[in-house]
């Protein structure tokens, strides 16, 4: 499977969703997609709820989150 470049699907623009990372061309924030997935929504659920996005955009949200977490240093667990 080819690696997905999340930068092709995710942007942060001042004045759109308060500048939070969002799917390009939409007002759908990455954190909303991640939250819905964490609550058990499936890709199919999201594609039905937001018919103007594609599966690759959802995957880009996951790739963005993965890269963001890799950059974080949360320190040692107590």
Average pLDDT, all residues = 92
Beta-strand proportion: 5-15%
Strand sequence of the main sheet, in spatial order? 1-2
Oligomer: single chain
Alpha-carbon distance between the two ends = 38 Å
The SS-based structural class is mainly alpha
**Count of helical segments?**
3
Task: Give me the secondary-structure topology.
Elements (H helix, E strand, L loop, with lengths): L9 E2 L10 E2 L6 H9 L4 H7 L5 H17 L7
Antiparallel strand pairs: 1-2
Helix pairs in contact: 1-3
Q: How would you characterize the overall build of this protein?
A:
The protein has 78 residues and is mainly α. The chain is built from three helices and two strands; from the N terminus they run ββααα. It has helices spanning 30-38, 43-49, 55-71; strands at 10-11, 22-23. Strands 1-2 form a two-stranded antiparallel ribbon. Helix 1 crosses helix 3 (55-71). The longest helix has 17 residues, at 55-71. The radius of gyration is 13 Å and the shape is globular. The N and C termini lie far apart (38 Å).
Descriptors:
78 residues, mainly alpha, two-stranded antiparallel sheet, 2 strands, 42% helix, 5% strand, globular
Outline:
The protein has 78 residues and is mainly α.
């Amino acid at each position: 499977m080819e690696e997905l470049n999340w930068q092709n699907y995710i942007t942060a623009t001042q004045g759109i969703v308060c500048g939070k990372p969002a799917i390009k061309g939409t007002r759908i924030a990455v954190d909303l997609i991640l939250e819905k997935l964490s609550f058990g929504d499936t890709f199919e659920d999201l594609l039905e709820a937001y018919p103007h996005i594609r599966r690759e955009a959802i995957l880009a949200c996951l790739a963005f989150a993965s890269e963001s977490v890799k950059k974080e240093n949360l320190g040692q667990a107590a």
